[in-house]
Amino acid sequence: MIATAHTNNILKLWQPDGTLIGTLQGHAERVNAVAWRPQSQAIASASQDKTVKLWQRDGQILQTLAGHEDSVLGVSFSPDGQTIASASRDKTVKIWQEYGTLLRTLEGHDGPVNWVSFSPDGQTIASGSEDNTVKLWTIDGELLDTLQGHTDGVWEVTFSPDGQLMVTASADRTIIIWSREGRPLSTLQGHTNLVSGVSFSPDSQAIATSSNDKTVRIWSIDGQLLYTLKGHNKGVTSVSFGPKGRVASASADGTVILWDLADVTLENLLMHGCYWLSDYLQHNPYVSRGDRTLCEATTPSPVPRRSPGNEGAGYPN
What we know:
The chain is mainly beta. It is 6% helix and 50% strand.
């Protein structure tokens, strides 16, 4: 099942084949992000209306978490589903019990906080901010470290499922892979506009990134670009890895595309090869004029399925 957030204040739930299951209504302003509670059918949504709402998949509102002084930009569940973290334009992260009690407010960023994530063991919280930094906190709110490396706002930060790595997406058009301790390991470059989202594959061996350059890119954890997925007509606002080699991407063009990375056909292999050869064909002086156009008709892209949606897309854990 896939949940999507929308600018018209609603959430929608979809089957992977694009069938609409339900529409959730209750926010007073646009929905910025969604998160599934682990091992559950409950959903959290973050909104411009300064609240987080907890939902059953049938549309029943379980709780409304109010306390932020500005738009809520990100939301995340702890691995056990008992704690919720919310990130806000008010420069804070708030930690809540699942029943809505505010436990603590994390202060320290100098700009809006775009995203927040829990480590797989539930002991560390990472927050990414417009102040260009990532901060690591204990579950009790103690600041552990401030990670510096980006030259523009950090739009998303997430931990690998095995807990060994973190990855950040930034408006500086780069992705940084970090050790669990906060040491930068590699910087991924290739997007031509801000990188809006990032997601690890379930086996922690691949990374998906989304960008305002209208593409999704798939990388190995050692930094090799595996695929460039083209299909959206406007900037891609979020990306989420699912099971069985599937990736969901949401775009400002009003659609969600479900990509099947397992569909590596001969045609896709040719497209992938042409991606690597394109610079050689265009710039090597010994390549004939006719051979320079061998790859012009190819676009690396596993087979997509489309559904309406425009802000965020998320798979359940």
